[in-house]
Amino acid sequence: MIGVCILVYVLQKNDADGLVEEFGMVPALVSSPAATVVVSQRQAVRTPFGTQIVVVDRELPAPKLHPWTTLLSCIFLHGSFMHLLGNIWFLYIFGDNVEDRMGPCGYLIFFLGSGIAASLAHFAFQPTSPIPTIGASGAVAGIMGAYMLLNPHAKVVTLIPIFFILQMMVLPAPVFLGIWFVIQLVQGSFSMGSAQAAGVAWWAHAGGFLFGFLVAWFLGRQQHPTRPSVRVINPSDD
Q1: What is the DSSP letter of 159?
Q2: Which of 23, 43, 100, 226 is the most exposed place for a label (fewest CB within 10 A)?
Q3: 156 Cβ neighbours under 8 A, 6+ residues apart
């Protein structure tokens, strides 16, 4: 999955806007596949008085695939190198342990399923947004949710800002991941009232995380089913 994301990003370098608009998930198109979506974009324009920023409205091109297929295709696209690096770094840290528990095929299905669940969560809270949604963050969040349940005693080394100084600390994985999940919920709540904040798919992160946690919990129940209680009756009690 890391290799696929890197390969797609390399392809994006030649046609970044085209791939994002054609294969990114646009919630407004998912809601109404035949609708015409207009987005406002800032552009720098040279004038006799210097460079000025103007807002230009334009129509998004029709997606090459059905808008519902972009629920999956969007997870392999990234907006910048740092966006890509952050996702593959978290995937590298948490992914191998989850794959060890699920097996390669199960892990692949789980990763893709987490991505789709994350896209659906973002769509549910932003169904009319014209902003293309991209990134593997939601799928990676699913891996993190599963990791939280499957590895309750693991430790995570993280950098925490304390009075503008980054302090390295070792935290229990459930604490680190739990705080991360709460942050996504809080940011998602704020994004519902801000068009600018809605550009970050906070609800996709939260939805993917919750999906991964529930899948890991369900698989754990299947592997360790609850044993029926047995009552011994003494014949003398009759």
Answers
A1: E
A2: 226
A3: 93, 170, 171, 172, 173, 176, 177
Q: What is the C-alpha end-to-end distance of the chain, expressed in Å?
A: 65
Question: Which among 130, 33, 37, 133 has a CA at the least distance from the CA of 77?
Answer: 133
Instruction: Output DSSP code: residue 133.
Output: B
* CATH number for 199: 1.20.1540.10
Task: Read off the tokens for 4.
Answer: 């696929």
Nearest to 30 by CA among 147, 129, 177, 167: 129
Question: What's the number of domains the chain is made of?
Answer: 1
Residue 202 CA to residue 55 CA, distance in Å, equals 26
pTM of the shown model: 0.78
Contact 162, 187 (CB under 8 A): no
Strands 155-162 and 165-172: antiparallel
Position 143, amino acid:
I
pLDDT for the residue numbered 189: 74
